[in-house]
Amino acid sequence: GLLVGGAYGVNFAVVYRNRRQSNVGDLEFANTVHIPRLLEGSSDGAGRLFELKARAGTTELLPGKQTPTWGVNGTFLGPTLRARRGEKVRVAYDNRLPEATTLHWHGMHLPATMDGGPHQMVEPGAVWKPYWTIEQPASTLWYHPHPHEETADHVTRGIAGMFILDDEKETEERTGLPRDYGVDDVPLIVQDRKFNDDGTMELRGATTMESFAGVGGVGVLGDTILVNGTYDPHLKVTSTLVRLRLMNASNARVYNFGFTDNREFHLVAQENGLVERPVPLRRIQLAAAERAEIVVRFEPGQKALLRSFAPDLGNSFPTERMDGGEDTFDIIELRAAQKLSKSRPLPERLRDTPPAIEVPGDARVREFRMSGTQINGKDMEMTRVDAVAAARSVELWDVTASSDGMHTLHIHGLAFNVVTYKGKRPPAHLRGAKDTVHVPPDEKVRLAVAMPRHVNADFPYMFHCHVLKHEDRGMMGQFTVVRPGTEDQAPRTISAHH
Ligand code: C2O
Ligand code: CU
Ligand code: CU
Predict the structure, then answer these.
(1) From CA 103, how far away is CA 118, in angstroms rounded?
(2) Residue 454's CATH number
(3) 146 lines ligand 1 (CB under 6 A)
(4) Structure confidence by residue, pLDDT tens digits, 289-320
(5) How do residues 41-62 score in pLDDT, each as one tens digit?
(6) What spacing in Å lies between the alpha carbon of 237 and ligand 3's midpoint?
(7) How confident is the model at residue 169 (pLDDT cuts 50, 70, 90)?
(8) Which ligand is nearest to the CA of 469?
(9) Whether residue 279 is found in the same domain as residue 336
């Protein structure tokens, strides 16, 4: 293992006892991290076209082992898609997988019919062709399958990728943020996996903690970390500032990212857009499906180890309950070159308009209780509409979680702000535009939810726990968005589209 000395020696002793290497052996950060290919698509009068083909294959994820995997335009994970605000986007998603699946645009503000949720199954051999206009600020979104009851399986096998949105008004050109993809603006898709001796990935979850026999089961918790699909990775840094787009694409695991030398970094964006001003932090905790963009400063020749420290999962949910107490993982080593190109200084302001959603005094308040694998005591039902919202309205969603589980709420098609977190004003790193939030056990989180402008009384958006096995077990609900004033007439039962 790698030993780090210095001023934090005492703390590190604690960290080290807890530290998880991997089931393969001590990490040496021997492999250059894979940077997913950037797919900018072909542009013509009709917009930007992304051609995606999902297929099964095998990948050498661990040294010397072949793992059966799924991928998009490759055998594991998929390319990074990139588009700008105002552009029309079209996708041709060619499903060459052995099973029906869907492709969902997590964090995208788009009509429900283009969202790729469980109502939009793509049969093997079929091509799905959604299209929409990018109508939201710069952000780091992602795509992944969403077939009802099979999402964890399809994501674990390898279908997932990043979707970067640019925005001329709040753009990096103006803000001076690093923006050279794969050079000083680097995607880090973090996933935990559990491998069997023959190289296959564990897909179901075997231990009590993982299974649903035990209370709080969350599906597979892997003991091996992959970054962009790379095991034991390092990244070469060539500039004084590097922007990392951290994305937790794991099934359930919560990471508490920080550097082993305890260096400060700046949060510049959350899931659904840039924050107002860079937020100095030493740790950032990301639950499943949360993203954060951080900017890290380097001196020539320096090495920095990004680690996930034991996450804070709430008082009634001690960390040992998550995975036997061992939930400190090394993620990736960053290695600065002897000569670094000088980055522009980090700007003081990142956007003109605050990411705050204005809440009217008469905002509708809804309550959601996450417990077991249900929301408000109900399992997901494809034909049931759980909520009808007025287009462009702002609602307050009060989300509580029971003491017996680990839950993370995600809402499709929109952005929200966290208004209160555990009854208080949220910490700085939870104050921007988000689409996913961890709901600690026995606590309440109040959200200001900015409803989409796209109206369709017959086709729902989803909201659900992003612990994928919870979602698969039915911890999901549906809402439709209708013309203001027509909420009462909207159907509460819809047909299940397939
Ligand atoms: Cu990340 Cu409903 O999805
Ligand atoms: Cu989503
Ligand atoms: Cu959950």
Answers:
(1) 9
(2) 2.60.40.420
(3) yes
(4) 999 999 999 999 999 999 999 888 875 454 44
(5) 888 778 899 999 999 999 999 9
(6) 37
(7) confident
(8) 3
(9) yes
- Domain identity same for 163 and 180: no
Is there a single domain that holds both residue 308 and residue 439?
Answer: no
Residues, the chain: 498
Q: Which of 117, 140, 167 is the last residue of a domain?
A: 167
Asked whether 434 lines ligand 1 (CB < 6 A), one says no
* Same domain flag for 158 and 179: no
Q: Has the ipTM of the complex gone over 0.85?
A: yes
* Residue range(s) defining the domain that contains residue 59: 33-167
Structure confidence at residue 352 (pLDDT)? 79
Q: Single out the residue in 341, 356, 385 at which a domain terminates.
A: 341
Query: Are 269 and 315 part of one and the same domain?
Result: yes
Q: Is 245 in the pocket of ligand 1 (CB under 6 A)?
A: no
- Does 119 lie in the same domain as 58? yes
**What residues have their beta carbon closer than 5 A to ion ligand 3?**
407, 465, 467, 470
Supply the residue whose CA is at minimum distance from atom 3 of ligand 1: 106
pLDDT in tens, 87-108: 999 999 999 999 999 999 999 9
Average pLDDT across the chain, whole number:
90
> Is 188 found in the same domain as 155?
no
Contact 412 CB / ligand 1 (< 6 Å): yes
* pLDDT given for residue 215 in this prediction: 42
Using alpha carbons only, give the angle 377, 381, 383 rounded to the nearest 5 degrees.
Answer: 135
Residue 349 in any domain: the answer is no
Beta-carbon count within 10 A of 105 CB: 24
What is the model's pLDDT at position 365? 98
Per-residue pLDDT tens over the stretch 422-477: 999 999 999 999 999 999 989 999 999 999 999 999 999 999 999 999 999 999 99
Retrieve residue 496's tokens: 């299940």
